[in-house]
Amino acid sequence: MSDYLVIVESPAKAKTIERYLGKKYTVKASMGHVRDLPKSQMGVDVDNQYEPKYITIRGKGDVLKDLKKAAKKAKKIYLAADPDREGEAIAWHLAHALNVDDQSQCRVVFNEITKESVKDSFKHPRKINEDLVDAQQARRILDRLVGYNISPLLWKKVKKGLSAGRVQSVAVKMIIDRENEIKQFKPEEYWSITADFLKDQEPFEGSFYGVDGKKQELANEQDVDKIMNTLSEDEFTVDKVNKRERKKNPAKPFTTSSLQQEAARKINFRAKKTMMIAQQLYEGIDLGRKSGGIQGLITYMRTDSTRISESAKQEAKTYIKDSYGESYLGTYKQGKKQEGTQDAHEAIRPTSVLRDPKSLKSILSRDQYRLYKLIWERFLASQMAPAVLDTMTVHLLNNDVEFRATGSVVKFNGFMKIYVEGTDDNKKTEDKRLPELEEGIRVKAAKITPNQHFTQPPPRYTEARLVRTMEEKGIGRPSTYAPTLDTIQRRGYVSMDNKRFVPTELGTIVIDIVEEFFPEIINVDFTAKMENDLDSVEDGQKNWIHLIDHFYQDFSKRLEKAEQEMETIEIKDEPAGIDCEKCGHEMVYKMGRYGKFLACSNFPDCRNTKPILKEIGVHCPKCKTGNIVERKSKKRRVFYGCDQFPECDFVSWDKPIARPCPKCNELLVEKKSKKETQVQCTSCDYKESTQN
To answer: Which among 565, 586, 619 is the end of a domain?
Structure first.
């Protein structure tokens, strides 16, 4: 019999921690929550101070039975769920289920799963933090009151299977608003003039700035013609050369939000995948006996703090000095705590910077390695010296018409030696070097080119952009971003097109209804304030019952009004203009989870359904009679196949091109990367590239 029972959330974590603690400890996993509100009913007594009704989660009976059996044998029980609100709530539920006094020193938390951190945490157990539990309970009850009241209304008035949630509805509304901005956008014409200069046969580029020292916009072709006519031949005088040294500071270590954004930009991970892989790195990887066995490789991955412990700073400092030299040492500044930041624990960082990615490459899976490398490099770079850039701005004059050329050269790479932060638009950060230029000299413009442009609408949200915007607006918290994005896609309210969110017709219908009858639910400011109020509950400044009651009193009145005034909306099936090949009845467009699809109007007697195929204007190269259409795999990945399937089994992940290879007359396909789109032949070595 072990003296102590430790309960964590996952078996992987249990295995790691049991090895650290020794024979006196038995470590078991609760597999997450063991109790929750029932799925079949509201589970909240609104007439009795919003008392929640908790039941054992279906399928968790055997787990709970095993934990109770182990608890009876143990002298002391420690609850070691994750160090956040959710983890605190899990510990509280376990305490009640196992008859553990939640006021006893039964709660243990650690920000990283290393031997030293785990052993130290057991020297400082504490009682369960009721404020944290109340904050999590308040969130759960609020979401239940919203979801279990609005969803049945949508089922009755619109369509079965619909639902609305507090944070997810705001996210869908943001996506819809962006789509409306794009549709309503009116492009405006503008022009630029670029010049290719030569100085001693060394080329450099400049752009039109203005006239008589004043910046001037070029709105149309007439403005351009006026400037071009003012220019006197092709010689320009260097009027001014400004040189200065500029420092570029490294990005701060990862928070949950910035990790999800950067993983999307640099290694093409969805938010859900990022968090899944990060969880594996946090809980522990078996590095082999020589390397210490199972080790947690990163600190806790749900955080909004950029704070770093002193021990981690010192270890990084030593590593940088030994590996790169003293000149690369930086001075890390914590910076001001942003409003709404909980700062419960450290930023996401490697548990030991000495475990460099290269040494772990053969042990980690490809995805684990790529994410660990990203976290390791970002953390190490954050502790390094700023990069120093020499920048140069050259003013060139021709008949009082001013062009400007700018360039920058890395003088000292500093943190950039190992890491440069990604950007959403994939702009290149290469050096743009200018030749040595002195004031008064003359240079020739080999070519002066007017360029017509049109303003572009705001881009659709990628996962990274949406997470960043939600964080900026105070919607959700670190643990909610990935589940929210996953939920709105699973429910069919949005779809993905070229890795960007597009609202579906179903999502638009639901949000229009919610906006009419429950405007506060999708109001960004209201939702952000609610998040701050939940933080206040966590800090012990607000009572959770008062918070919920203040919301529900107004919400219940809106609910009554919606019940009476909301009209039944019939989503009619739209005729498709083709007959069912199985029974001869007309096919219709129906609305499903992932948008529209074709179905037989003779349902349920005939259950024939077909996806809506998008032709790309290319004949099938295999059967010669069919047309290539765009399809989607079970994982919603786009591929291309013949519309005569299953008679013809032609498929391609790459988009076929509507012209033959000029070299061998076979099929050309389009291959896309972040930097370029490349057209390749499927048969010979013919290639052609265009920059994206």
So the answer is: 565
pLDDT of 610 reads 82
My answer on whether 47 and 110 are in the same domain is: yes
Please choose, from the candidates 111, 98, 113, 118, the residue with its C-alpha nearest in 3D space to the C-alpha of residue 22: 118
Dist CA 438 CA 395 (whole Å): 11
Residue 71 banded pLDDT, cuts 50, 70, 90: very high
Count of alpha carbons within 13 angstroms of residue 225, beta-carbon side = 3
For 466, the token pair is 């949406």
* Separation between Cα atoms, residue 54 and residue 60, nearest integer Å: 13
Ordered DSSP codes for 193-231: EEEEEEETTEEEEEEEEEETTEE--B-SHHHHHHHHHH-
Identify whether 615 is part of a domain.
Answer: no
CATH number of 195's domain: 2.70.20.10
CA distances from 579 to 415, 518, 596, 667 (A): 64, 42, 17, 33
Q: What is the pLDDT of residue 421?
A: 87
Asked if residue 52 has a cis previous peptide bond (ω within 30° of 0), the answer is no
- Best CA proximity match to 13, nearest among 83, 60, 88: 83
* Catalytic annotation, residues: 300
Tell me: do 484 and 521 sit in the same domain. Answer: yes
Q: Which residues pair with 606 in a beta bridge?
A: none
Instruction: Bin 624: left if φ > 0, else alpha if -120 < ψ < 50, else beta.
Output: left
Are residues 486 and 412 part of one domain?
Answer: no
The pLDDT value recorded for residue 4 is: 92
For 212, other C-beta atoms within 10 Å of its C-beta total: 8
* Cis bond before residue 646 (omega within 30° of 0): yes
Work out the percent of the chain whose per-residue pLDDT is above 90. 58
- Give the count of beta carbons closer than 10 Å to the beta carbon of residue 601: 16
Burial 424-462 (b: 16+ CB within 10 A, else e): eeeeeeeeeebbebeeeeebebeebebeeeeeeeeebbb
* 475 band by pLDDT with thresholds 50, 70 and 90: confident
Helices (H), 539-683: 544-565
> Does the pTM of the predicted model rise above 0.85?
no
**What pLDDT digit, counting tens, does each position of 13-70 carry?**
888 898 889 889 999 999 989 999 998 899 999 999 999 999 999 999 999 999 999 9
The reported pLDDT for the residue numbered 1 is 53
The mean pLDDT value for 591-598 works out to 70
- 3-state SS, one letter per residue, for 348-384: ECECCCCCCHHHHCCCCCHHHHHHHHHHHHHHHHHCE
247's tokens: 């420092």
- Residue 184 has a pLDDT of 95
Domain span at residue 215? 189-249+390-419+427-454
Among 131, 91, 168, residue whose Cα is nearest residue 534: 131
Element counts in the chain: helices (H) and strands (E): 17, 30
Look over the chain and give the mean of its residue pLDDT values, rounded to a whole number. 89
Give the strand pairing for 4-8 and 76-79: parallel
Q: Do residues 387 and 415 lie in contact, with contact meaning Cβ atoms separated by under 8 Å?
A: yes
Residue 339 in this model has a pLDDT that exceeds 60: no
- Total tally of structural domains belonging to the chain: 4
More confident residue, 87 or 477: 87
62 Cβ contact list (under 8 Å, min separation 6): none
pLDDT of residue 275: 94
Same domain (yes/no): 309, 378:
yes
Six token digits for residue 223: 């403005």
